[in-house]
Amino acid sequence: MRRRRRRTTTTKKRAKSYVTEMAHRLLVRRIWTLSVKEICCHPASTATTASSSFSTSLQSATTRVSFLSPSRSLPRSLPHTSCRAVSFNVQDHEDFTERVINSELPVLVDFHAQWCGPCKILGPRLEKAVAKQKGRVAMAKVDIDDHTDLAIEYGVSAVPTVIAMRGGDVVDHFVGIKDDDELDSFVSKVIGQ
After folding, report:
1. Among 20, 108, 140, 190, which is most exposed with the fewest C-beta within 10 angstroms?
2. Mean of the per-residue pLDDT values of the chain
3. CA 17 to CA 8: how far, in whole Å?
4. Is 125 a residue whose pLDDT tops 80?
5. Which value, to the nearest 10 degrees, does the dihedral of the CA atoms of residues 166, 135, 108, 27 take?
6. How does pLDDT run across 14-72, given as a tens digit for each residue?
């Protein structure tokens, strides 16, 4: 009887610890995302007019961001071509809403995990099928370990799961691996061909 109580107590403590850890990770991720967005949205002129203690840190952060951003005029030896990325990683729930739900294009959402072998096989194949459509469809990648809330919201119980969305609505989905021909026909069906 005492052993059973100890096991139950230990199990409850582990579950509580896990939930606390996941909540902490989610909170840190949201704070990080907000602070990065804040830094990216402030131009250098805003940093110089801010209060002195805040402006020093913001100015150095803005300088770093502008150093990393592409320059306005590239050397002639490097031609600048603007190409849309075939796929993108979802950063948070707000990013998902903005780039997937509010997208004008149909979007394939690839729910995957780093530890999932079949996901590593399907991902490149799916990107190739999307690239063949030349900008008529987008692909969002959602890591279920980082975005558990999205996986639960869309009923993902196994990975890889691919959900096709158009106008914010789920129009089709599949679970598991498909061969290249099946992926091509799935993508064509989503964009209406």
Report:
1. 20
2. 76
3. 14
4. yes
5. -100
6. 666 666 777 667 666 666 665 545 544 444 444 444 444 444 444 444 444 444 444 44
Residue 167 backbone class (left: φ over 0; alpha: ψ -120 to 50; beta: rest)? left
**Quick one: tokens of 187?**
């993508």
Residue 100, token pair as written in the block: 């997937």
Q: How far apart are CA 26 and CA 34, in angstroms?
A: 12
Q: Any catalytic annotation for residue 119?
A: yes
Residue of 40, 41, 83, 119 marked catalytic = 119
pTM of the predicted structure, to 2 decimals: 0.57
DSSP 110: E
E strands, the chain, in order: 87-89, 107-112, 138-143, 161-166, 169-175
Is residue 41 among the annotated active site residues?
A: no
Q: How many CA atoms lie within 13 A of 67 on its CB side?
A: 6
Catalytic residue, candidates 40, 41, 83, 116: 116
Residue labelled with tokens 């009887």: 1
pLDDT at res. 33? 61
- Euclidean distance between CA atoms 52 and 117, whole angstroms: 51
